[in-house]
């Protein structure tokens, strides 16, 4: 995404303004679901009118006005429906209910984005719903765009979003700045949702596109906003660092034919130096505060990779030490799997293969293609060609990601070719 | 009219492709990518997906309590669906022509595979005279 064309500039502006506008409208109407619908309509109207008629002098005010008008219509219709149903006349006409102070406070607008983010990552929501709602309310994406990013029909995504809004409504959580205590409680869920959005963009769990950069970029943008509001939080800084350090390799990750390129074979001159520098500065500062969380550790590992000028210069003993700390913090089999790779790099493939045996008994990862793929790599390095071919083929049969399947088939073929 | 083109994998066990040399796999993948691109550009592609390996496949039926009963994996089945395309074309002949093109995807040594592609018409709503 390069903000060069007017169209792209408008798109960026709308994404930036979306949460501020939504926050302002919700503060007036105290109705998340109705306000959210109205803001979506206002954003769609702007996306079609502004490229043609030009961007208004105060785009934020324009959007708030259009969205407020739509919400008013909706509230009126709702009031009329209630009148018909209950045969009572409201004592306060809806017009009067709506005449509240104008929004000119920019700082308030920015806080709104934070409130929205914490609302959308409500613990009562499934991660899938929280992701969809966050992308719409905070990210300013349309339902169609979110549906496309997750490769589902628009109607399916619309349903998911309306269910999520219903859950928020019935939870009765008011729209207000969370207290420091609530912020701390909710922050873990928020970071998890952002992490999932980033990962979905970085490696799709299914389908034929390896990279959907829209989602990764969106996750980085929202996490950056969160970091600006909570600069002292080491977990937020750690997550932003992790995203930047991972995303920095994006251009080198995929061959022109769509085939994924593994880390050791990537052309490191394609890595984004600015992102790496920013990520390293962030993670260094976060770790120096003494707060060692999972995101900081994963970011630190990514930083060690990114700092190596060539794959063979990678400081594996340091990576191994970081994985050992990480394993103490989390019981994640994928961490154990990556730890085994680090062990193999430091102490040889046999030592790594030995550690994989424990994972065969772990139902969460036994039968997962990543376990087969790692085993295949280590077997190859141990010189066990036939066994490596077998496991590459097994991994290929188990992955649901098409480019990755092709990559694994090629690895098996490469080994067979060298033996022929 | 819409047609579904189904690519069935003959034989048993793992993908046949997994025993080909590297350059032949590459050529085959390239063919499939450009085939999908071409159909998409001509406006004839409605949908198309490759399916995950058959060793992931399960057969589900409802038990008396309505709960799923899972059967499988079926590594020994005679053939299995590896992928499909749904196309929207003017005539059955065009659907057959596209299927023939898919059938001739390159195999080992770059030779056309000439694999069987099952062509089935997708049913649509009632014709105008019934509405």
UniProtKB/TrEMBL annotation, chain A:
Residues 13-79 form the RNA polymerase sigma-70 region domain. Gene3D superfamilies: 1.10.1740.10, Winged helix-like DNA-binding domain superfamily/Winged helix DNA-binding domain. Residues 118-166 form the RNA polymerase sigma factor 70 region 4 type domain. Residues 186-286 form the DUF6596 domain. SUPFAM superfamilies: Sigma2 domain of RNA polymerase sigma factors, Sigma3 and sigma4 domains of RNA polymerase sigma factors. It comes from the Bacteria. This is RNA polymerase sigma factor.
From TrEMBL, chain B:
Pfam families: YCII. SUPFAM superfamilies: Dimeric alpha+beta barrel. Residues 1-103 form the YCII-related domain. Belongs to the YciI family. PANTHER family: BLL7171 PROTEIN (PTHR35174:SF3), BLL7171 PROTEIN-RELATED (PTHR35174). This is YCII-related domain-containing protein.
């Amino acid at each position: 995404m390069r903000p060069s064309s007017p169209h792209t500039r408008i798109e960026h502006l709308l994404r930036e303004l979306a949460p501020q506008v939504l926050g302002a409208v919700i503060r007036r109407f105290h109705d998340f679901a109705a306000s959210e619908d109205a803001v979506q309509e206002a954003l769609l109207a702007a996306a079609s009118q502004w490229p043609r008629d030009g961007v208004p002098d105060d785009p934020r005010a324009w959007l708030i006005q259009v969205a407020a008008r739509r919400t008013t219509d909706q509230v009126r219709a709702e009031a009329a429906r209630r009148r018909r149903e209950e045969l009572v006349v409201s004592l306060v006409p809806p017009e009067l209910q709506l005449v509240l102070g104008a929004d000119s406070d920019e700082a308030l607008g920015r806080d709104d984005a934070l409130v929205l983010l914490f609302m959308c990552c409500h613990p009562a929501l499934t991660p899938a719903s929280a992701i969809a709602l966050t992308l719409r309310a905070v990210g300013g994406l349309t339902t169609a765009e979110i549906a496309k990013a997750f490769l589902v029909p628009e109607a399916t995504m619309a349903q998911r979003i309306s269910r999520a809004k219903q859950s928020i409504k019935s939870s009765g959580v008011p729209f207000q700045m969370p207290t420091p205590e609530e912020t701390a409680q909710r922050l873990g869920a928020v970071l998890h949702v952002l992490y999932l959005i980033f990962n979905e963009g970085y490696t799709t769990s299914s389908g034929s596109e390896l990279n959907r950069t829209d989602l990764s970029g969106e996750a980085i943008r929202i996490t950056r906003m969160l970091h600006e509001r909570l600069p002292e939080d080491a977990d937020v800084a750690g997550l932003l660092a992790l995203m930047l350090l991972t995303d920095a390799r994006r251009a080198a990750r995929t061959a022109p034919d769509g085939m994924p390129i593994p880390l050791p074979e990537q052309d490191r001159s394609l890595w984004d130096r600015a992102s790496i520098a920013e990520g390293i500065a962030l993670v260094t500062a976060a770790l120096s505060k003494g707060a060692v969380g999972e995101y900081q550790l994963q970011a630190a590992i990514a930083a060690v990779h990114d700092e190596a000028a060539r794959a063979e210069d990678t400081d594996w003993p340091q990576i191994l030490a970081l994985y050992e700390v990480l394993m103490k913090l989390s019981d994640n089999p994928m961490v154990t799997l990556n730890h085994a790779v680090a062990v193999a790099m430091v102490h040889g493939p046999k030592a790594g293969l030995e550690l994989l045996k424990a994972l065969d008994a772990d139902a969460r990862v036994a039968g997962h293609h990543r376990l087969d793929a790692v085993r295949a790599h280590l077997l190859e390095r141990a010189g066990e060609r036939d066994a490596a071919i077998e496991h590459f083929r097994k991994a290929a049969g188990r992955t649901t990601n098409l480019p990755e399947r092709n990559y694994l088939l090629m690895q098996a073929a490469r080994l067979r070719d060298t033996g022929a | 009219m819409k047609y579904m083109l189904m690519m069935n994998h003959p034989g048993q066990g793992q993908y046949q492709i997994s025993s080909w040399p590297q350059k032949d796999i590459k050529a085959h993948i390239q063919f499939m990518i450009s085939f999908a691109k071409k159909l998409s550009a001509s406006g004839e592609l409605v949908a198309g997906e490759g399916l995950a390996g058959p060793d992931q496949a399960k057969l589900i039926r409802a038990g008396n309590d309505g709960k799923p009963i899972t059967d499988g994996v079926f590594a020994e089945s005679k053939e299995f669906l590896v992928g499909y395309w749904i196309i929207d074309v003017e005539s059955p002949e065009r659907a057959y022509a596209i299927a023939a093109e898919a059938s001739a995807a390159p195999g080992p040594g770059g030779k056309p595979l000439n694999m069987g592609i099952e062509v089935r018409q997708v049913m649509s709503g009632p014709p105008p005279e019934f509405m």
